[in-house]
Amino acid sequence: MAFDKRKIFNTAFFWGCRISTWGAILILGILIYHIVKQGYPWISENFITNFPSRFPHKAGLKSALAGSLWVISFTALIVVPLGVSTSIFLEEYAPRKRYMRWIQINISNLAGMPSIIYGLLGLAIFVRFFNLDRSIWAGALTLSLLVLPVIVIASQGAIRSVPQSIRDAGYALGARKWQVVFQQVIPAAMPGIMTGVILSTSRAIGETAPLIIIGALSYVAYLPEGPMDSFTVLPVQIYNWASRPQESFHGLAAAGIMVLLTILFIMNFIAVYIRQKFTKFKY
Amino acid sequence: MIAMAKSKALGTGIKLYLMACVSLTVVVSGSVIVLLGKESIEFFSQVPFFDFLFGSRWEPLLEPKSFGVLPLLSGTFLIVVGSISIALPFGLLIAIYLSEFASHRFRSIIKPALEILAGIPTVVYGYFALTFVTPILKSIWPETEVFNAASAFIVVGIMILPMVTSLSDDAFRALPSSLKEGAYALGATPLEVSIQVILPAASLRVWAAVILAISRAVGETMAVSIAAGANPKLTLNPLESIQTMTAYIVQVSMGDTPQGGVEYLTCFAVAGLLFVLTWSMNALGSHFIFAKGKN
Question: pTM for this structure?
Answer without folding.
Answer: 0.91
